[in-house]
Amino acid sequence: MSINHIRPWRHIERRKSRQIHVGNVPVGGDAPIAVQTMTNTPTTDVAATVAQVLAAAEAGADIVRVSVPDEASSRALKEIVRESPVPIVADIHFHYKRGIEAAEAGAACLRINPGNIGDEKRVAEVIRAAKDHNCSIRIGVNAGSLEKHLLDKYGEPCPEAMVESGLDHIRILQDHDFHEFKISVKASDVFMSAAAYQQLAEATDAPIHLGITEAGGFVSGTIKSAIGLGQLLWMGIGDTLRVSLSADPVEEVKVGFEILKSLGLRHRGVNIISCPSCARQGFDVIKTVEALEKRLEHVKTPMSLSIIGCVVNGPGEALMTDVGFTGGGAGSGMVYLAGKASHKMSNAQMVDHIVEEVEKKAAQLDAEAAAAE
Q1: Assign residue 238 a region: left if phi > 0, alpha if psi is -120 to 50, beta otherwise?
Q2: Which of 21, 164, 255, 281 to pair with 84, CA 20 to 30 A apart?
Q3: Where are the beta strands (DSSP E) in 115-188?
Q4: CA–CA separation, 115 vs 102, rounded Å?
Q5: Angle (CA) 341 345 348, round 5°
Q6: Running DSSP on this structure, what letter comes out for residue 145?
Q7: pLDDT tens, residue by residue, 121-171
Q8: CA distance 358 to 299
Q9: What does the pLDDT look like over 274-284, one tens digit per residue?
């Protein structure tokens, strides 16, 4: 869908995919692109894992994945599912019995890796458990754990090998009359991931989960994910996504939403448009934006805020935002409301005042949305 249909250069035509459900979250079809993350606490530490799930959900995560490496984790999963406000995906590797246990524990989805889950007989048992407990399945192909016969065939991990792995596993699920599945073909290499996802999108109508796996730390991983996921989303490919960072899962959620917001595919919270600052700035733009990002984290209503240091671009940016502030002189700047100059405000009081104006605008937008229902 487009940000604004009268601007065709912003239009994204999403790939047509089947719709499935991960718990109560629709995935694929015309559903919003779901944002996922994964806990990094020991799953057996129920309190710590639940705390991470709650924090991720508060940040906007639609779905959270939890690793299930052993029987103790399977037992803990039941408690985690009970406490979670969002559907839980059980991450299953190496032992198919963990998949069965996770389904019994209430997982909404089972992530299984074709490269290490075992032969078709074992997969069939996981499928049976998924059917019995109303679970969906994600086929999670990873370049780092492809099946040996595919590595022998292709010589090295490559897009063709990843797609063949995924399609082989789709066949197994479909042969067992199971259709509630989505699929991913992740690699740490942006080029390989992008090529594999493009091939996959042409080969199946299954919902696609996007990710650049093992992308790295916060800065490098964010950049790799923005490049890789951004180009695929721009092409209309992708029904769910995870930004894989060596960082707090909450940061993964935030980056995921920012990628979607930049393409007009999801809208949540305040979109701050700010300048990088220069010698013309009438106030400390960088510190002001840092303060506002923290102070406005609680606002979930989609809206825009421009913070511009001077009058070169400030008034023009403010024309297109709900609330704006443009630096002037003599220790004050101009506040803009709904694109129009409203009143002056001192730099010393601007942060508190902008927070008040944003909260007021958010309440107005929420009331208008409620009235329209």
Answers
A1: left
A2: 255
A3: 136-142, 181-186
A4: 19
A5: 150
A6: G
A7: 899 999 999 999 999 999 999 999 899 999 999 999 999 999 999 999 999
A8: 8
A9: 999 999 999 99
Round to whole Å and give the CA distance between 342 and 356: 14
Residues of the chain with pLDDT under 70: 1-6
The number of residues making up the chain comes to: 373
56 in Cβ contact with 64 (< 8 Å):
yes
C-alpha–C-alpha distance, residues 109 and 56, integer Å: 18
- Inter-residue contact 82 to 53 (CB < 8 Å): no
DSSP 33-99: PEEEEE--S-TT-HHHHHHHHHHHHHHT-SEEEEE--SHHHHHHHHHHHHH-SS-EEEEE-S-HHHH
Grouping H, G, I as helix, E, B as strand and the rest as coil, residue 284 is: coil
Residue 312 neighbours by CB under 8 Å, 6+ apart: 280
The letter for the amino acid at 173 is L
The token duo for 154 is 């292709």
CA atoms within 13 A on the CB side of 40: 10
Q: Are strands 63-67 and 34-38 parallel, antiparallel or unpaired?
A: parallel
CB under 8 Å to 96, separation ≥6 — which residues? Answer: 112, 117, 118, 122, 123, 125, 126
Cα angle 327, 328, 330 (rounded to 5 degrees) comes to: 125
DSSP state, 15?
P
CA dist 73 and 105 (Å) reads 10
3-state secondary structure of 270: strand
**Statement: the pTM of the whole predicted model exceeds 0.85:** yes
Which amino acid is it at 113? N
Q: Among 220, 274, 262, 277, which Cα is nearest to 244's? A: 220
| DSSP secondary structure, 318-360, as one string | HTTSSEEEEE-STTEEEEEETTEEEEEEETTTHHHHHHHHHHH
